[in-house]
Amino acid sequence: MHFPSLFAGPLAAVEGATVKPWSLALALAGGVALGFFAVWVFLRQMRRQAREQAAQLLDVARREGAVEAGATRQKAEEEIAARRADANREFDRREIESELRLREIRSHEESLALLDFQLEQKSERLAREGAAIKQARDAIRAMSKSVRQRLEGMAHMDAEEIRQALREEVQVECADELRALRRATLDRSEQDLQAEAKRILIAAMQRLAGKQTNDLMVTLVPLPSEDMKARIIGREGRNIKTFEAATGVTLLIDESPQVVLVSSFDPVRREIARVALEGLVKDGRIHPATIEDFVTRAREEIHLNTQQAGEEAVQRLGVNGLHPAIIGLLGRLKFRFSIAQNVLEHSVEVGFLCSMLASELGLDPNVAKRAGLLHDIGKGIEGDYEGSHATMGADFVRRHGETPIVVNAVAAHHEEVKPETVYAGLVILADTVSAVRPGARAEAMEGYIQRLDRLEKLALSVEGVQQAYAIQAGREVRVVVNPANVTDDQARELTKTLRRRIEEELQYPSTIRITVIRESRFTETAT
Predict the structure, then answer these.
(1) Longest C-alpha distance within the chain, in Å?
(2) Which structural domain, as residue segments, surrounds residue 514?
(3) Domain tally, the chain
(4) Range from 52-66, 180-194, 378-392, 510-524 carrying the lowest mean pLDDT
(5) Are residues 8 and 97 in the same domain?
(6) DSSP per residue over 351-365, as a string?
């Protein structure tokens, strides 16, 4: 805008004519007003443009701030998720470490219990030997007195009377000695047999140390993000219904972050579902067609894994000539559990124990090993079959060419069928040893603590009991009574009462030893 142009008209009019002073002043005032008006319009337009530019800049800054805030929030969420995962892993690690330490404590307790038992046996043996020595000393003294009396009597007898008396005495003494010798021989034979049996069992158990596994009814499958849960469920639940129908398991999708639970009592189906779901999550394409494809691939993979597991078990034991169907069925035991003990590992352990026991007894270790490995093969048979796993397993191995010795050992390992050979007895013994050895079928920590607590509470509920302690992993309870209120006879009766109540009210493996302590102590301090 050019300001001189605003005054060009008035100035020309002034120059061309004679104007009065007040007219000139009026013209100049009009020009100035017009100039101010033009400046005001110009400044208002500039101010409007500045406001629009400021609004645009503010909008751009707001959008950039929102983007940066979203990125910061996502980064913070990822960092929180990573730290939570690290914390969960650390918690799992510490839980596993505590479980291992608890198992070590149990093992130490059982070792101390064994030493305590051996010490008690030695004490009892020394007591018996001391009593026998005292009895022999008394017998010698009595015999010496008797000889003296006889000699005194024989001094007044003739030769025939002495001969007759000696004959009768020798007959009586020989009869007593023969009875005593026969009784000692029988007792000694039984003790020797028991000692030899214990030696063989201990030698076999010390040579074998099996591992422990845990049985789970659910399997956790991790997810890369929470959005994957919606894709697994699908529109109107189409994907999850197809997956459950194809695998025979139940998918549990809850509020647990980035994890899906696969639930099934059939461990083979659960493993197939886990492999298939992990493949689907990794691939990303989740719809009914791909679900069926991945489930089929998972079945083939698990079938191959079971076959390899059976072959590895056979190779570990060195068993030859097994039918391929038997090897495949053995591999299925990898996914079977008995309480917390893997059935395949248990079968291999029983095979090793049978082999070692047979070697100690001079039997064929290969036959014993074969029978021990196949004794639980019936647990891998699926379908509607009548009978126990022992009878089904025996029928299966008989149809696939096993010898009558092995078939009878498999059928009789739970004593449902009469054992026909010593190998069946070896399998029964090895199966029991593998199942009840320390750590084989360990219970959960919570159940273990509850069992000890119930045992102590039951002991404390008996009248006269002051303190009760469950020790040796619950295999012994020690009770302290008040000696002022409970006599020795009452303490003996209290032991029997506590034994009856434990047998009637509690469920427990193996046996529980009950020890009642009645003790009086008197203390003085000399100064």
Answers:
(1) 205
(2) 445-518
(3) 3
(4) 180-194
(5) yes
(6) HHHHHHHHHHHTS-H
